[in-house]
Amino acid sequence: MADLLNIGLSGLSASKSQLSITGHNISNVNTPGYSRQDASQATRVPQFSGAGYVGSGTTLVEIRRTYSEFLTSQLRSSTSLSSDVEAYKSQIDQLDSLLAGSTTGITPSLQKFFSAFQTAAEDPANIPARQLVLAEAEGLARRFNTVSDRLTEQNNFTNKQMSAVTDQVNRLAGTIGSLNQAIAIASANGKQPNDLLDKRDEAVRQLSTYIGVTVTPQDDNSFNVSVGTGQPLVVGSTVSRLEVVPGQSDPNRHEIQFVSGNSRQGITSQITGGELGGLIRYREEVLDSTMNSLGRLALAVSDQINSQQTQGLDLKGQVGEALFGDYNAASLMGLRATPFRGNTSAADASLRITDTGNLTISDYRMEFDGSNYSARRLSDNASITVSTNAGPPAYLSFADNAGKDQGFTVAISGTPNAGDKFSLQPTRRGATDIKTVLDQADQLAFAAPVRAQSNLQNIGNGVISQPETTGAVNIGTLKTALSADITLTYNSGSPPSITGAGVTQLSPAEFTPGQTNELSVTIDGHSFKFTVSGRPQQGDTFTIGFNQNGVSDNRNALKMVNLQTKQTIGVDGAVPGSGKSFTDGYGELVERVGTLTAQARMDSDATGAILKQATDNRDSLSAVNLDEEAANLIKFEQYYNASAQIIQVARSMFDTLISTFR
User: Fold this and answer.
1) Mean pLDDT, to the nearest integer, of 50-55?
2) Does some domain include residue 346?
3) Are 24 and 169 contained in the same domain?
4) CA pair distance 368, 605, nearest whole angstrom
5) Residue 550, pLDDT above cutoff 90
6) Does 518 reside within a domain?
7) How far apart are the C-alpha atoms of 288 and 362, rounded to whole Å?
8) 262-321 pLDDT, tens per residue?
9) Which of 278, 462, 466, 553 supports an S-S bond with 87, CB 3.0-4.6 Å?
10) Per-residue exposure over 169-195, b if at least 16 CB sit within 10 Å of its own CB, e if not
11) One domain for residues 98 and 246
């Protein structure tokens, strides 16, 4: 009877534990990361009797969780990948809408600007049309500024988000370290602390939403968690941390440092996965190059328009002044070259733009080894040759391995020490700094500096076209050279004669009546080309002079209009036909961002599906099924009642036995 009582009690205890486990499962059905638990039972050691061994009841061997390390690891990596893609996509979606928008992009403002030039060129003396050019120029500059401000806001958001994410990483790392310690202590009795293990797995999963991690299980059931290329964030109960600091090369571009004890290590480029990895990837792949591409376009627009302005005359007959501000102002040059924070000297640098057509959209890193400078183009990690020019003033020039000039020079102030580094960003601030400086409509230089005409006394019907410059013109020098007109005289049967101060060459030396003859003339170092057509007669003359009163002349205005389609960006002198126009340059940027956006959206769909599949796989094994648990409740309740009935039978038998001795 005692044996029967013990058997009933063992069943009662086992069923009570099974009911508790089932109730625990049901109550945690919505607990993130919880793994369904069950208990394994075994028979107690049987007792020997004369007839054989008689069972002595049951006992609980182990309370275990339904868990797969493979599925959990798969869920963790899928979570990290999905968070990376979502962070990247959320940022590039905004950028794509900004650049390609019909009201927010640069293209509409560029079109309005050149359309205003076209309208003004049709009537160059029309002041309201000239005013419209100034208004559209200011609108274009402000559009550049606005888009640049939005990109800067994205960069600032990235910095702030990196700080916020890093705080979460450090918090979860601390949680994992504490759980590691508690699990190691609880595991000392040889059994698994299931709920603590679930909490730690969930903490690691949450950590993977912020940063890609590698988990290494240890013999004492603790986890070692590493980030980057193996930096140990959590080792047992010892926890390191991540810290966001201003960048060494660019204070506006924050970096991630791994801090362990008193040592620090920059790991920004080594971080992958999670929200942090997605933000860093977006900044490196898209944001930086977009800011540089937009800046290069703004610099090219300023350079080309200003250069053409100085090749013409305004309504007052004066040399044209710059429409846009000087991008080589001393204050702006100093912002393009930044010493690294770790430099041991006080040497500073400034960067001058020398040729906007040769500029790339890359940043550069320059280093001094104590005697020579070296540089590297960061977009493709190409080595750049640095040449020292004695000046004065002294400066450094840069060319790639093919000998192509990079479009800028650098001047060093102070004496650098060996190991000093400098960050060079030729185009980063171009769109931020562009502005209009011309405010008088009559100062727009629409007229060409030189005009040509036929002598009214000519006998033949020869016609001379208006000269066009074939190179840069110093109008002040040219005006002095053309203080008196140059005269071209046709001599039948012999080369024409050209007279006047400063004339050094007429090419070709003769022309044929009855056809269009293309000629060029060099006047005091300035080259012009023109045509003579028709049939001039002996002694007919043509004059070339300074266009002092060219009020209705629109030749320079038309050249400005033609800049819209002229290939002026990314020009390679060794490759004929290379380069892009303003519109094509911006269109290439929009196309690249649009392609990356479409790819990000496809990646988001794919990684979302992968994450859902990994979650479903894990849940199919480990998640609580309420129908199953409800069935277990009924089963274990019946088990409990049956065990209680065994005890009741044992009691009745004991009472009967006692009654026989009364």
Assistant:
1) 80
2) yes
3) no
4) 47
5) no
6) yes
7) 9
8) 899 999 999 999 999 999 999 999 999 999 999 999 999 999 999 999 888 888 888 889
9) 278
10) bbebbebbbbbbebbbebbeeeebbbb
11) yes
d(CA 457, CA 540): 8
| Residues 62 and 103 both lie in one domain | no
Residues 164-177: pLDDT tens digits? 999 999 999 999 99
User: Whole domain around residue 536: which residue ranges?
Assistant: 448-549
Q: Are 467 and 541 contained in the same domain?
A: yes
How much is the pLDDT for 403?
A: 87
Partners of 225 in the β-ladder: 215, 234
Predicted pLDDT at 654: 75
Tokens standing for 239?
Answer: 């926890």
Alpha-carbon span 463 to 533, nearest angstrom: 5
Structural domain contains residue 315 = no
Partners of residue 353 on adjacent β-strands: 408
How many domains is the chain built from?
Answer: 4
Is residue 410 domain-shared with residue 338, that is, in the same domain? yes
Ramachandran angles phi, psi of 173, nearest 5°: -60, -40
Q: Does one domain contain both 105 and 215?
A: yes
Assess if residue 375 is contained within a domain. Answer: yes
Q: Are residues 211 and 94 part of one domain?
A: yes
Q: What's the CA gap between 657 and 360, in Å, rounded?
A: 104
pTM here? Answer: 0.88
| Distance between CA atoms of residues 12 and 122, nearest Å | 103
Name residue, tokens 């274990």: 636
Tell me what pLDDT residue 369 has: 92
Contact between 229 and 270 under an 8 Å Cβ cutoff? The reply is: yes
- Count the Cβ atoms, other than its own, within 10 Å of residue 47: 11
**Dist CA 233 CA 270 (whole Å):** 14
Residues 137 and 197 in one domain: yes
What secondary structure, in 3-state letters, does 554-576 show? Answer: CHHHHHHHHCCCCCCECCCCCCC
Longest CA span, the chain: 164
Two tokens at 598? 């479409």
